[in-house]
Write a structure and sequence with these properties.
The complex is a heterodimer of chains A (283) and B (760). By secondary structure, chain A is an alpha+beta fold. Chain A folds into 3 domains: 46 residues, 2-Layer Sandwich (Uridine Diphospho-n-acetylenolpyruvylglucosamine Reductase, domain 2), CATH 3.30.43; 111 residues, Uridine Diphospho-n-acetylenolpyruvylglucosamine Reductase, domain 3 (2-Layer Sandwich), CATH 3.30.465; 93 residues, CO dehydrogenase flavoprotein, C-terminal domain (Enolase-like, domain 1). Helices cover 36% and strands 25% of the residues of chain A. Chain A has 12 helices and 14 strands. Chain A is globular. Chain B is an alpha+beta fold. Chain B folds into 3 domains: 148 residues, Aldehyde oxidase/xanthine dehydrogenase, molybdopterin binding domain (Aldehyde Oxidoreductase, domain 4), CATH 3.30.365.10; 175 residues, Aldehyde oxidase/xanthine dehydrogenase, a/b hammerhead (Aldehyde Oxidoreductase, domain 3), CATH 3.90.1170; 324 residues, 2-Layer Sandwich (Aldehyde Oxidoreductase, domain 4), CATH 3.30.365. Helix content of chain B is 28%, strand content 26%. Chain B contains 19 helices and 30 strands. In chain B, the strands form 8 sheets. In chain B, strands 3-5-1-12-9-10-11 form a 7-stranded mixed beta sheet. In chain B, strands 7-15-14-13-8 form a 5-stranded mixed beta sheet. Classes of the chains: A alpha+beta (283), B alpha+beta (760). At the A-B interface, α12 of A face α19 of B. The complex binds flavin-adenine dinucleotide. Flavin-adenine dinucleotide (FAD) binds next to β2, α2, α6, α7 and β10 of chain A.
Chain lengths: 283, 760
């Protein structure tokens, strides 16, 4: 049993003022699916919580024309169920749909997933290939940081002590884009990724361009595979091209070994997932 | 056979309502306005000499009422069944990181936890050993005495050299199994209250009340009569709430007696992972010989079990492994040796199956490999060598009770369409990305304790003046459905409705020592005791009814709430009879006792009749393996078990489904990981058990084969259901991929790369 101080501001301005005043002593609380187990583990030290759930509109998903804007407090379930996301950035629905279980998806938020900065966070590889931008606010103003630069190391992001992540702006996918999100876990639900691969490219007459690849759970943060992406750029997909890409990504990826898997297995799987996704386009 | 009214019928568990509505009371729900909260300081090293423990600062921390160490143990700081070497708190040495060094009682849980930081401990590190291999080496640091090998059991049959001489094919294989956690939903919890007269009342999720009471008696230096253990609802146990609960109860009781106040102790999940005992990991080496036609000629086995830091039930676990080492097959020449070895890792003990899941994994994989070598269908090899009524087991016992083993094989095979399915699947292209396979495993299992010890149990049945009935049993409900079974038996004998029977919680103050709730013995032993107690009450009731109704008719019966005559006429309500008995001064309160038949074991020669009867089972699994990733999907599963007689079909289904789930976890997912004695998996985020989505379509086949010992012929079902799921699924994986996996768990990496994970 422990008691925790929880501040629950009703407006974003109030929340930012509190954050400006208390800094790291005030830990933002979104869905709490990372925060609560972390507090129980003693990962955060003595902190008070800043409950963001009463701030209106922070969970909205809106179509801004060329972009989709997703509030930081949108849950994975909100994302999966959103028709806007489904129509314009389906790779994100796919990714968020693989998170945990119904219960976790209904509580866990996309903002929390980003700020937790786990290399295995499922939404991040998808947001990264989509070229998304994080909107960070403090009482001083707003900053924008591309998702690819957002996570520094596990649990550490570019969010400063006085900041809150308020939303993510995601450019719409071009019609006819090729994409996939593939995740490999040890069981069929409640499984953190051993390896995940997000892929997005434009396609014209079978020729790929603007190829983007992100890898989850292979490095300390979600990372890209620029060499492999470049190798696919301007290529017409076929078995030879795919085999080359698979081989390349297996040398390009520098997997870690941890409690969830080995370096060797991950290296192999990065290739298998990429090959699998690419071959799926040929069917 | 008389047709039953309640036995064999689908009934709702008598304890279902409380559980599904959240009304059931668990030990952590108990509260007392004066209660204190206990907390434990655990070791920071795996093996060390305890130089000093200074609690002088901690006692003056806010809210603290007592801080105790081994020096405060009132009695003997040792408990355990065969080799009592477990401590309530570490005294001379620390032997694994779960060892407790000191306990605190404080007015709040937070104050108790904070006070732990005020305890100054000086430990002198000793060199530690983490694997049996290291621990068995000459010159390895001794954990309790000189040698770390503290158990050796053997089985000898025929002349092993002759057996191998006659063999056309000889195979040598090594298999290993993993350290796994019981993963019960409810972590350990107790409340201890001083009774004001020097004694203590302990309430908690205790599995084996009399064992825990014995431990407390030694530790507290109190007569057994001064210790009362009452069971609260148990949120799962699977063999796991024995010694670890004795430790917890003893600590809480020491604090309660010292402070004169109730003390509650509740383990967090992490504490439970660190402190509670696990299933023994085994290394098993086999040599098997067979004729070209598949007849087995010889089997040589060497098993080594990692017992961790304390002896606990290891001698018995290892004994069951070696006794059942040949599986349900006739082997003329057997030489088997099994060892239990101390290491500085978390200790291991009883867990559903109790030494059988390891041995069954070994022999069942071996049978499949042998079938492959001989070019035989694994089913045919098993049918050819399978035990039948009158066969002799590896220990030389003649099976004189009807043996239903072949029936479990044949009914499973029919259910999954073994031959056809296997052929169809053989036709799949070798290199297909996804490839299916089917596999099987089988077992026989000795019911109840066997030669482990005297096997006897008691029960009391008491009919109230309104005809409702109370039952007390000396064996506990630990989730297995036992109270429902004894309620059914009582209702059957007394001719009342199941709803009229109430089973009251297990309490050492009421019942004679009936041994532990283990070894799938509850229904056989406790059920028979209950049937006897109810039978006595019934005879008294009928005798009184004859007097009241002025009849000499012998053939009166109790049925559906009535006293009925042989013609079926209703003569008197049972309710009225119960009231009349009270008025006439006749007590409807009877005790029943049942002692199992004698058995014989010759430890010197490694042979005998270790169990008075056996159950038989077969599991078959179909899987699909992703040959690129190692992912395994279990598509269908058939689990056939000879249960003697089905008392509650719902209960048997529950045991089978749950047993399969647990067995699949063992086969595919579960492994407690330690690095140099430090636990890495300490919660369910990293320790993965199957979710509902991982479970296949399951088909339960109940084979009825009534036995003369159990109530209405009922035998056992709890443990057999979990002991062969892992080998069945691993054999199916091997059928799919053509590659052997010989180590558990068969997780993605191992299925794909055939290697153990290398962890950093
Ligand atoms: C059983 C279980 C299964 C899981 N399975 C998965 C899985 O399969 N895939 C996966 O990716 N994750 C998984 N997770 C992790 C977790 O659910 C996700 O990371 C989730 O998205 C976190 O969101 P949350 O709203 O719960 O975050 P919280 O726990 O509330 O917060 C997480 C972190 O972000 C910070 N934070 C939150 N919102 C903001 C904000 N707006 N501004 C600044 N900082 C903020 C918090 O202070 C904290 O540091 C699982 C967790 C559990 C418990």
């Amino acid at each position: 049993m422990r008691t925790l101080e929880v501040l629950a501001p009703e407006t974003l301005e109030e929340a930012l003022a509190l954050k400006a005043h208390h800094g790291t002593a005030l830990l933002p609380l979104a869905g709490g699916t990372d925060v609560i187990p972390g507090i129980r583990r003693g990962a955060y030290g003595a902190v008070a919580l800043l409950d963001l759930s009463r701030i209106p509109d922070l969970n909205r998903i809106v179509d801004d024309g060329t972009e989709i804007r997703i509030g930081a407090l949108a849950t994975h379930a909100d994302v999966v169920e959103s028709a806007i996301v489904g129509a314009h950035i389906p790779v994100l629905s796919e990714a968020c749909g693989t998170v945990g279980s119904v219960q976790i998806r209904s509580r866990g938020t996309i903002g929390g997933n980003l700020c937790h900065a786990s290399p295995a966070s499922d939404s991040v590889p998808a947001l990264r290939v989509l070229g998304s931008v994080c909107e960070i606010r403090s009482s001083k103003g707003t900053r924008e940081i591309p998702v690819g630069d957002f996570c520094i190391s596990p649990g550490v992001t570019r969010v400063l002590p006085a900041d809150l992540l308020v939303g993510i702006r995601v450019p719409k996918m071009r019609p006819g884009s090729r994409w996939f999100y593939l995740k490999l876990g040890q069981r069929r639900a409640m499984a953190i990724a051993k390896v995940s691969v997000a892929f997005l490219a434009a396609e014209d007459g079978g020729v790929l361009s603007d190829v983007r690849i992100s890898l989850g759970a292979v490095a300390p943060t979600v990372c890209g595979a620029p060499r492999t992406a470049a190798c696919l750029e301007g290529k017409k997909l076929g078995e030879t091209v795919i085999s080359e890409a698979v081989e390349m990504i297996q040398t390009e990826a520098k997997p870690i070994a941890d409690i969830r898997s080995t370096e060797e297995y991950r290296r192999e799987m990065v290739g298998v997932l990429l090959g699998r996704g690419l071959r799926g386009f040929l069917e | 056979m008389k047709d039953f009214k309640v036995v064999g019928k689908k009934v709702r568990r008598v304890d279902a309502l409380g559980k599904v509505t959240g009304q059931a009371r668990y030990a952590a729900d108990l509260a007392d306005p004066h209660m204190l909260y206990g907390a434990v300081l655990r070791a920071s090293l795996s093996h060390a000499r305890v130089v000093s423990i200074d609690v002088s600062q901690a006692v003056s921390f806010p809210g603290v009422e007592a801080v105790l160490t081994a020096a405060d143990v009132p009695g003997r700081n040792r408990f355990g069944t065969m080799i009592p070497n477990q401590r309530v708190l570490a005294d001379d040495k620390v032997r694994f990181r779960g060892d407790g060094l000191a306990v605190v009682a404080a007015r709040s849980a937070r104050e108790a936890a904070r006070a732990l930081s005020g305890i100054r401990v000086q430990l002198e590190p000793l060199s530690a050993v983490f694997s049996p291999e290291e621990a068995m080496k000459r010159g390895a640091p001794g954990i309790h005495g000189k040698s770390n090998i503290f158990v050796h059991h053997k089985v000898r049959k025929g002349r092993i050299a002759d057996g191998f001489r006659r063999a056309d094919v000889i195979l040598r294989r090594t298999y290993t199994t993993a350290l796994i956690e019981h993963a019960y939903l409810e972590p350990e919890a107790v409340m201890a209250r001083p009774d004001g007269e020097g004694g203590v009342l302990v309430e908690g999720c205790v599995q084996n009340m009399y064992t825990t009471r014995r431990g407390l008696s030694t530790v507290l230096r109190l007569p057994l009569a001064k210790i009362r253990v009452v069971q609260t609802t148990v949120g799962g146990s699977f063999g796991g709430k024995d010694e670890v609960m004795t430790v917890l109860a003893a600590r809480a009781a020491m604090l309660a007696l010292r402070t004169g106040r109730p003390v509650q102790m509740v383990n967090s999940r992490e504490e439970s992972f660190h402190e509670s005992y696990k299933r023994h990991p085994y290394v098993m080496e086999y040599r098997i010989g067979a004729k070209k036609n598949g007849r087995l000629t010889a089997l040589e086995v060497r098993m080594v079990a990692n017992a961790g830091a304390y002896a606990t039930t290891t001698p018995f676990v290892v004994w069951r492994s070696v006794v059942q080492c040949a599986g349900p097959y006739v082997v003329p020449h057997v030489k088997a040796d099994a060892y239990g070895v101390y290491t500085n890792t978390v200790y291991t003990g009883a867990m559903r199956g109790f030494g059988s899941p390891q041995g069954n994994f070994g022999i069942e994989l071996l049978m499949d490999e042998l079938a492959g070598e001989l070019g035989m269908d694994p089913l045919d090899l098993r049918i050819l060598n399978g035990i039948r009524t009158g066969s002799r087991t590896a220990t030389g016992q003649k099976l004189d009770q009807p043996v239903a083993f072949i029936e479990t094989l044949e009914r499973s095979a029919r259910s999954i369409n073994w031959k056809r399915r296997r052929e169809e699947l053989d036709g799949q292209p070798r290199n297909a990305r996804r490839r299916k396979g089917i596999g099987m495993a089988a077992s026989y299992r000795g019911c109840a304790l066997g030669a482990e010890g005297t096997d006897a149990a008691g029960a009391v049945v008491s009919v109230q003046t309104d005809g409702s009935v109370i039952v007390w049993s000396g064996i506990a409900e630990v989730g297995q459905g036992y109270y429902t079974v004894i309620a059914q038996i009582t209702a059957e004998v007394l001719g009342v409705n199941l709803a009229d029977v109430t089973v009251l919680p297990y309490d050492t103050a009421i019942m004679s020592d009936s041994g532990p709730s283990v070894a799938s013995r509850s229904t056989m032993l406790g059920g028979t005791a209950t049937r006897r107690a109810a039978g006595r009450v019934r005879r008294k009731m009928l005798a009184e009814a004859r007097l009241i109704l002025r009849t000499k008719a012998k053939s009166m019966d109790l049925e559906r709430g009535w006293v009925v005559s042989s013609g079926g006429q209703r003569r008197m309500r049972i309710r009225d009879l119960a009231a009349a008995c009270f008025e006439r001064g006749v007590a409807l309160f009877e005790f029943g006792w049942y002692k199992g038949p004698d058995i014989h074991w010759d430890e010197q020669r490694g042979r005998g009749s270790p169990y008075f009867t056996y159950v038989y089972g077969t599991n078959m699994a179909e899987v699909e393996v992703d040959q690129e990733t190692g992912e395994v999907r279990v598509l269908q599963f058939v689990s056939a078990h000879d249960v003697g007689r089905v008392v509650n079909p719902q209960g048997v289904l529950g045991q089978i489904y749950g047993g399969v789930a647990m067995g699949l976890g063992y086969g595919l997912l579960e492994e407690v990981e330690e690095r140099e004695g430090r636990l890495v998996t300490e919660n369910f985020d990293e320790y993965l058990i199957p979710t509902s989505l991982d479970m296949p379509q399951m088909k339960a086949v109940m084979v009825e084969n009534p036995d003369r010992h159990g109530p209405y012929g009922a035998k056992s079902v709890g443990e057999p259901t979990t002991e062969i799921a892992a080998p069945a699924v691993v054999n199916a994986i091997c059928h799919a991929t053509g590659q052997r996996v010989r180590d558990l768990p068969a997780n993605l990496e191992r299925v794909l790369l055939g290697k153990k994970l290398v962890r950093t």
